[in-house]
Amino acid sequence: MATDIAPQRSGLAEQPPTDNYLTHSSGLSSWIFTLDHKRIGMMYLIGVTTALFLGGIFALVLRIELLTPGKTIISADTYNQMFTLHGAVMVFLFIIPGIPAALGNFVLPLMLGAKDVAFPRLNLFSFHLWVMGLCMFLLTLILGGLDTGWTFYAPYSVTTNTSVISALTGAFLLGFSSIFTGLNFIVTSHVLRPKGMNWFKLPLFIWALYATAIIQVLATPVLAITLLLLLVEKATGIGVFDPALGGDPVLFQHFFWFYSHPAVYIMVLPAMGVISELIAAFTHKRIFGYSFIAFSSVGIAVIGFLVWGHHMFTSGESKLVAMVFSGITFTVAIPSAIKVFNWVASLYKGSIRLATPMLYALSFLVLFSIGGLTGLHLATLSVDVYFHDTYFVVAHFHYVMVGSALTAMLGGLFYWWPKMVGRMYNETVGQISAGFVFVGFNMTFFPQFILGCQGMPRRYYNYLPEFQTWHQVSTCGALTLGVGIMLATGCLLHALLRGRIAPANPWGGTTLEWQCSSPPPFDNFKSPPPIHDPYDVDYIVYDEAIGGYVQRDDVPQAGARSQPESGSEG
Amino acid sequence: MASTVEALSPSEDHEGHGEHHPPHLAHHFASPRQQEYSGKLGMWLFLVQEVLFFSGLFCAYSVYRSNHPEIFVYAHNYLNTTLGATNTAVLIFSSLTMALAVRAAQNSQRKTLIVCLILTIVCGFIFMGIKYTEYSHKWHEGLLWGHHYDPAFAPGEEHLSGGHNASHGEEGEAGMIAEEHGSEAETGEPDSSVEPAPQATASPPPKVDTSAPITPATAVGSQLPKPGEATSETIAAAGPLAIPAEASPQNVQIFFSIYFMMTGLHGVHVVAGIIVLFWLLRRSIRGDFSREYSAPVDLVGLYWHLVDLVWIYLFPLLYLIH
Questions:
Q1: CA B95: distance to chain centroid?
Q2: CB nearest B257 (choices: A122, A225, A238)
Q3: What does the pLDDT look like over A294-332, one tens digit per residue?
Q4: Could you identify which of A204, A482, B160, B319 might form a hypothetical disulfide with B84, taking C-beta atoms 3.0 to 4.6 angstroms apart as the criterion?
């Protein structure tokens, strides 16, 4: 933080100060080497969106290929590469950094009332690692692709001729990027809370990010060493996973899933955090069951470490081990369901406003419920043996990863976009995009449940003619989903360029980020903001003059808690 | 990590609460105490992360050792316990000097700090030097991973000849080879049972390039028909250091895969530590550290201790198996 802080008035609910983080300095290097968490968050956002489009194009190519049995547009080898790259790009480059690194980076310090994350340099370094990871994946594309599946299972990944090494390096770098983000968030949440902000005054998004960060720090290193072993194996034939040399390929699967199952919670926990914020803001009511939602995040994170074996029911686990993993997997449903019940209960008697973010949040509730409940099918041993490696699994995890994580991310983006860029988006277009995404998504993936039940195996290039109808429905759905995402992107970009100037608090959000101007000033808060209950709607009131909400006691900073009645003049 | 709390400039006074920040205090922290606490917490999390990073290897070690204890018992005899123990002592000593460095920094004793840091760095170099000796020894004797595994000796006499091989350079090898041929029965023995498949099927063994200078691969092949006799000869001929047990178990190379991965990764961490120590040294010569601000020394100390600790586990797990 070499830059001096310009003296500046605290902008609590006043007219936006002329200086904000976007205008604070200019030039390309002021972005690439910035230490400001908001700019890093925005760069992450641009990055992960690029990855989303890249992975999305792969997905569309896959779906179009599956319109007919046999060859439609690409060869079988290309198809293998497409689904591999689709998975790898979406998982490592998009979903895992998606909400925590992009939205989390931007929002977490603001919500906390802090000036930045604890280690701004590390934050920037983690972004640079992300970029290097992206470059390695692009290199993989150039050097002949990758056809191992995103799981890199040995021994095939050791023998294939595609450029596994660069992809592994990429995933390795992205892993450390994720670790450092998590580490930063944990320390930030512990250390940079202003006076009065105790754990139970933290917004639920921070709880979710905290739980996510625990997984990032504890699980990702295991992936890193696994990838490193595989990399060395590929480069020098070390043989740790090669049965011909006395190695054990199942050990790879254990290592891989020890990370990659918790990674599912890296994807979905922050999404749940976003949903908690959206529901609180758009029901204009204190969220129901705050501490249950908070602790269920941590619960999911902890239990998530103990269930990896359910990916391996068919790789020769003993019956006892399989039963234990199956049992623990069922218990994950408990904290997940606690969250859903609390969200639904929050809707009850709330003044629900169906703005775009809320539409996404409601979609999330439906899609996550479906995704979660079908997870129970797969946790059941007897059923899993049938469903293993079918489209049922594909549909299940897409409901969780796309239906939940992507939907929540879009909802969060629409919600925080006015804060990020200081402009409002077009509400109608936003709502239409939410409709397209919801319909398109279900049309894509619900048929895949049916296909899975009928026995369609995943990752297959060809299929029996009787599966064709559902495949075609699914492809149409994918195109609809694509239109929805394009609409959402277009809507947000239009807002960036042409949108109406956003007030500091357009939604009636009660958490701290809405107390600084939109977009936030360079150092967020000149002095620590007054802390109160994060979901207490009594402190804010709608002000027609500025089209947004303002603090009830409009005297900045003085007597924070004392006079909630002191005037509605705004 | 340490770099995140790097000061902007050397500091003089650290009265520092409230209005004006001391120079080493980053703008987003309220007080030096908060900054120091952040650094500590961050470092500990980083160390947790490091432990988990190594845990994969320890886990692989446990799996393979519990499945094939005979491989580990057999192959650890190839390792030179003396060198390993020396390295352990060196690292433990370096931990002491590092701890003294931290104390010196906290007490504003610039000279002591510099001396301790230099001692720590020297220990790091000694460790890496000894590691290099061990590695090059193994490299020359074909004690490598995967297909490269092609030992020139049975584990027993490896110790005997290991002494001079390590001290000899390139020119020493000729003598070594002659020595080997002299006792061909013993040298051939472990090979014949380790890699019977490639030898028997006459497929070209990929090991040739690495082990060519030393190993008479053809001679090894010729020993194949009578492994039983060779074994009994070995037991008779090998000195007291040879393991009296039966022939080499299968898949001994997996031990060396794990050995090289674990010690290699640890070595990378030592090198990283040395680099950071140099950075600290430069800063302490510049006089950055004092009673009020010694966090970087503290943090690097924590890291260095962890690296030592990992070795303290590695040494018995790899060298002292019974």
A1: 16
A2: A238
A3: 999 999 999 999 999 999 998 888 999 999 999 999 999
A4: B319
